[in-house]
Design goal:
Strand order of the largest sheet: 1-3-2
Order of helices and strands: HHHHHHHEHEEHHHH
Helix content: 40-55%
Structural class: mainly alpha
Number of strands: 3
Number of helices: 12
Radius of gyration: 19 Å
Distance between the termini: 23 Å
């Protein structure tokens, strides 16, 4: 994993990652990012990356960043000279503005990212689904100000028919108990699949998607 790939992974899951860390680790993560920004040679880049990785060890094993990093033991393809994306680093450091956001605010930001995905409202569901969306195996994201929404990727394109593979995987991910976690799996990057699961529906075999979800659950 290159430094920029590592930073891109963090950006994809940044609010949720920060919300999962205590204040001390968030502060050391900030320091690691500043060290990376100041790195003048390959060794300095690698030292900063090790510092960052160390602070991420406390993430839950099912966290998307923890899953992606679990098989990466070193940054063998780090550049000989620091070519770290400064704009990307700046985006990550912007969250540490004064005063820093608390865990509740960070988690709310993570939810807002998922909330922005295209979705259907309860009135748009097919009658047989609207009777009991939970029984249909759908992810339901509830916004405190706007009510329930059902991410659009769960339905066959142009219809309100739930996709069988989505229902199957939502069951594996226990979406009825943790809809936000299930939505984050679907809408976040996945190293095993080399893409975002929701964007791979119909592009990769259903069994590959299901297997990736099973491996996540098995590793928890």
């Amino acid at each position: 994993m290159t430094p920029d790939a590592f930073l891109s992974l963090l950006r994809t899951h940044w609010p949720m990652t920060l919300a999962a860390l205590d204040g001390g680790r968030r502060a050391r993560l900030r320091d690691g990012l500043n060290d990376l920004a100041a790195a003048g040679d390959r060794k300095a880049v690698e030292r900063a990356l090790r510092t960052l990785r160390l602070q991420l060890r406390s993430l839950p094993p099912d966290h998307p960043v923890a899953r992606e990093l679990s098989g990466t033991v070193r940054y063998a393809d780090a550049p000989p000279a620091p070519t770290v994306d400064r704009a990307l680093l700046g985006e990550l450091l912007d969250v540490f503005a004064d005063p820093p956001p608390g865990p509740a605010e960070l988690l709310r930001a993570a939810h807002e990212r998922l909330w922005r995905t295209p979705a259907l409202g309860p009135a748009e569901l097919a009658p047989e689904t609207a009777d009991d969306p939970a029984a249909a195996g759908l992810i339901r994201l509830t916004h405190p100000g706007s009510g329930d929404r059902y991410p659009r990727f769960q339905f066959a394109p142009g219809t309100t028919e739930p996709l069988p593979v989505v229902r199957r995987i939502n069951h594996i991910l226990m979406a009825d108990k943790d809809p936000w976690g299930a939505a984050d799996w679907w809408l976040g990057g996945n190293g095993r699949l080399a893409g975002v699961p929701a964007e791979l529906l119909g592009e990769v075999p259903d069994e590959d998607l299901a297997q990736a979800a099973l491996e996540l659950v098995a590793g928890c």
